Each structure stands twice: as C-alpha cells, then as structure tokens.
Amino acid sequence: MSKEQRARIDAMVRQPRPDGPQSVEAIRAGFRAMMAEVAVPDGLRTTPTTLGDRPTLYVEPGGRTRTGGTILYFHGGGFVFGSPETAMSLTGNLVARTGFRAYSPDYRLAPEHPFPAAVEDTLSAYRALLDSGEDPAAIAFAGDSAGGGLSVTTCLAAREAGLPMPAAIVAFSPGLDATRTGESMDAKAGVDPFFTRESLGHTGAMYLAGADPYQPMLSPAVLADLTGFPPMLLQAGGNEMLLDDSTRLAARARAAGVDVILDVTADVPHVFQAFAGVLDEADQALDRAALFLTQHVRVPGAEPVRRP
C-alpha cells in the first residue's frame, strides 16, 4: 500500500465545499468536473446507442479481440447526477481488463424522475439484451455507488419479472440502504472525505420523493431476500460511510446461500477504483474484479453476438 498515494487522493477529494445544500445543477456540474480529471484507458471504442428506450454508451476493447462477455454497467451519482461518461474510468477499465464489451445506460435521474425510474430503466436495458438473443450466462451486472445498488435491485426486479439472473454482480462501494442505519454512517463520519449524513440525505430525499425507504428495492442490505442470486463481488473502502451497506448485504447473501466475496480495502474512499493509474490499490481492486468476471461469465462460442 502507498500511504503517500492514499493521502494525495484523500486531499484531492476533500476540497472545500459550499456551505448548505447545493442545487441539482451545481452538484451535477461539480461531479462532471471532478470525473473529467480521472484517467480512462487508451484505445477503447465507444459508440452511442440505445438499450431499452434509453440512450446508452457502448464500449468495446481496443487492440485485442473481444472475448464475448457482456457487462451491463450502471453509473454512480446518488440517482441524481452522473452519466455513462462520468463512469468511463470504471467501465473502461473493466472492458480493458476483461476483453468484454459493455453497455452503460443513461438511466433517468431524480429529482425529475424519482424512484423507481432508475430501476425501471436498468431492468428495461437488461430485458433488451435478453430479447436480442444474449445468453444471461454471458452477462454480468456491474456498477458503482448508486449504480452498484442498481446492480442488486435490478436483479431483484428481474427475478420478480420472471427473467433469468445474470452470471455475476460486481459492485463498487454500492449504495444499498436508503434507511441509512448502518453503523459506519456514524463510525466513518468525518473520516469519509466525500459524504456527510446531511449530503446523503439531501440527494437521497430527491430520489425517494416521499417513498418509504424500508422496502427491499430501496434498502436491499436491510430487507432483500437474495435467494437465487448470482455470485457477487462487493468492493468497498475502509474510509466510507456506506461501508456497512456492503458488509450487511454480504451477510444476507451468505445467509441465502449465495456465493459472495466482500473485498474491503483499508484507508481508501468511496469508489476508490476510479483512481486507477494514480492509486495502486485501485488498480489491484480492478484486477480482482476483472478476474472475478472472467471466472463467472460464460463466453459464448463462435456464434456472433447481435447488437440490440
């Protein structure tokens, strides 16, 4: 581990912030600016497309033959900000390290489109892949933060709709508890360079729009039945307030007989994997995630894969 690297990342993300709640426009602009500074692997091919009825970014590996697996990647941003473009460091690194292709849907955001709009859109994207002839055993869900939460809740929605499960789930610092009852919410307050209870409450209220957080689709770490779920890799940082979202979901998965790996890296922040290239722990975590995906996603044979 590099203490110097971790300290540099912590200082970078712990910049002074305006007092009081920010407007939606300011939050979105600030996040775009921050993520524009994050490195994206070279050589990737990106194409705008549509999946379901939402704009989607299609990402292919460059300089090597695609190996056949498909990642359905859900970007982070508290269900209020972010886009497929702001998540390209993460999507791109998974594509580059696995040789899989990826689709990253631009799901609807709150407050304009509160819960359950995001889940409806991600489920629609998965259904479109299946309808196009994709084998679910060749599809993995992945995501970061709110998108990591969507990788779980989209599975819940797919099971409810009678759809087959994907081959695997990879979730980076997933948001899995809208009740905010995890012990880390208090234990990591002040340690977490990104969040406060107030900031999480501000964006969380936009997504909830009055919905009861005590339901599986909003708080799967507390309430979801994970029976029949695919193997899961949950990666989180030791310095984040949402740490117990991952630890509690892992416990529920084990209790339901699901294969699960809880992968916690000490002294790093929320979605630390985005800092690949400048933080050794980020590259190491992405290598572990890529290995997990290649171990669980069944690569199709010689049959061509049709694009939706």
Keywords:
308 residues, alpha/beta, Rossmann fold, eight-stranded mixed beta sheet, 8 strands, 37% helix, disordered C terminus
CATH superfamily membership, which one?
A: Alpha/Beta hydrolase fold, catalytic domain
CATH class membership: Alpha Beta
How many individual β-strands? Answer: 8
Distance between the termini: 42 Å
User: Helical content, roughly?
Assistant: 25-40%
At the third CATH level, what is the topology name?
Rossmann fold
The residue ranges in which pLDDT falls below 50 over 5 or more consecutive positions are: 302-307
Radius of gyration: 18 Å
Strand line-up of the largest beta sheet: 1-2-4-3-5-6-7-8
Structural class, please? alpha/beta
Average pLDDT level: 93
**Strand portion, in percent?**
15-25%
Q: Quickly count the domains.
A: 1
Number of helical elements? 10
If classified by CATH, what would the architecture be? 3-Layer(aba) Sandwich
Listing every helix as H and every strand as E from the N terminus to the C terminus, the arrangement reads HHEEEHEHEHEHHHEHEH
Major beta sheet, specifics? 8 strands, mixed
Overall 3D form: globular
